[in-house]
Every structure is written in C-alpha cells, then in structure tokens.
Amino acid sequence: MRRAANIVFFLAVIACGALFYWRRGQRAERPKTDAAEAVARSQATTPPPPPLMAPIRPSLDAGHSATAQSSDEPTLMQQLRALAKKDPERAEALARAGRLRFPESPAADERDALLVDALINQQRIGAARSETYYYFDHHPGGRFTEHLFAMTGVHPTPRGPGR
What we know:
Layout: H1 2-29, H2 34-45, H3 60-67, H4 73-86, H5 88-101, H6 108-121, H7 125-138, H8 145-152
Helix pairs in contact: 3-5, 4-5, 4-6, 5-6, 6-7, 6-8, 7-8
C-alpha cells in the first residue's frame, strides 16, 4: 500500500512539472498587453544606477608631504595613532611612507598594525587582510597578532617542523 502511494505521488509530481512547463510555453507565446508595454517602456527609460566608485588611494607623494612634517619616527607614530580612525586615508599614506623610511624600526609592528586598522576604517577589507598576512610574515609573534586576528579573521601560519 505504501509503495503504491509513493508511486502515485511521484507520478503526480511529474504531471505537475509537465503542466507548469507547458503553461510556461503558453505565456511566452501570448502578445504583450498595453500595461506590460508601459512597464517595459518605463524600465527602458530608467537610467542605469551610477557605477561604483573605486576606493580612493592616496598617492605616495601625499604620504611624503605628510611625513615631511615629522622627521622622527615617534612623531610619525603619534600621528598614525591619532589619524587611524579620523582620517584613515592619510593614516594609510603615513604608514606606507613610514615603512619606506623606517623599515627595521622597533615600532614597525605597531605601524603595520595601524596600517591594517586604517584599511579597515576605509572598509577595504581585502587590502586589510593582505596587510595582515604581511604583518604575520614580517612580525612573527608580534604584539598585535590577536588584535589583527580579531579584526580580519586572518590567523598566523603555524611555524614548526616542515616549515
């Protein structure tokens, strides 16, 4: 009995599918009504949405002019801390310029972490994740590892045998 009910149900599903397929073909053959033409015309005259803007990338020259004010790294780091949330574009330019001017400084791990924060505040998550990978490669065991993991979801690659 149960098997017969399953077969009937299966045949009913096939019949409904065939009916919908057949009705779909009938709808396509029908001529458009005046209301349908009016809707199609209004959609055709609607302007397309504006294109998405590419994120603003500060030029390297802007970063050098901004760092021209600060001749030493402590001043640069103080500016970075202040600008990471208020003006993340400028903070990004300062951090990248600082990376070029002070590549092996003791504050390099904080500078690179502030660069990631500035990118996150610009809502450039992909770039922030890439910079997080850079941070983990250049600062293994850095002070901001947990913070960057929480902000980007990127975790450091474990080091051990075979690596």
